[in-house]
Amino acid sequence: MGVEGLAVALACRHGLDAEGVLTAALLHDYAKAEPQERLRELMEQGTDYKPTEEDLRHPAMWHGIAAAHVGRSEYGIDDLRVLEAVAYHTTGNEGLGPIGLALYVADYLEPTRGFNGVEQARREILTLTDLRQAALEVARRKIDKIQRKNQPLHGRTLAMARWLERETGKK
Ligand SMILES: [Fe+2]
User: Fold this and answer.
1) Cα of 30 to ligand 1 centre, how many Å?
2) What is the Å distance from ligand 1's center to 99 Cα?
3) Which domain holds residue 46?
4) Which of 33, 69, 72, 79 is surrounded by the most beta carbons within 10 Å?
């Protein structure tokens, strides 16, 4: 629910379809508590976002792809701007639409997040007037943290950061 409030605030600030953003925010972690075997099943049943080989090596992002399938199959959501936002809310993706960018930013900065420096990150990112720049800042921080911890970085996150750098001219 923390993500929901912030995502809708971002939708209002950036002139997005608030209902689409709200739907994506309510759905994004719907499958998070499911065991990994169930998430694999849901991903395999889905038709919109088939997991790649690389996705299969990153179980932390499976719940997004699984929730996108649940959104369509159980709730009849057919808006691909919403479903892609849900599918890729953990990793981001090159070409992600504005609803996806808003969810990506809101998920990182939602009010119950308590990581070191979160207050400063909120001040720096939530005040940006360009949502693409805000998403780029989130992607950069995620990449930095993953690399510092020597964890595997998903190619979608890197691809999104490079795409947003081109889009915003922020090298
Ligand atoms: Fe999530």
Assistant:
1) 8
2) 15
3) 2-168
4) 69
pTM above 0.90, yes or no: yes
Contacts with 153 (C-beta within 8 Å, 6 or more apart), sequence order: 143, 146, 147
Q: Which pLDDT tens digit goes with each residue over 53-90? A: 999 999 999 999 999 999 999 999 999 999 999 999 99
User: How many structural domains comprise the chain?
Assistant: 1
Separation of alpha carbons 89 and 84, rounded Å: 8
Looking up residue 138, the CATH number of its domain turns out to be 1.10.3210.10
DSSP string, 97-132: -HHHHHHHHHHHH-TT---TTHHHHHHHHHT-S-HH
Ligand 1 center from residue 70 Cα (angstroms): 14
Surrounding ion ligand 1 within 5 Å at CB are 29
Instruction: Assign 169 to helix, strand or coil.
Output: coil
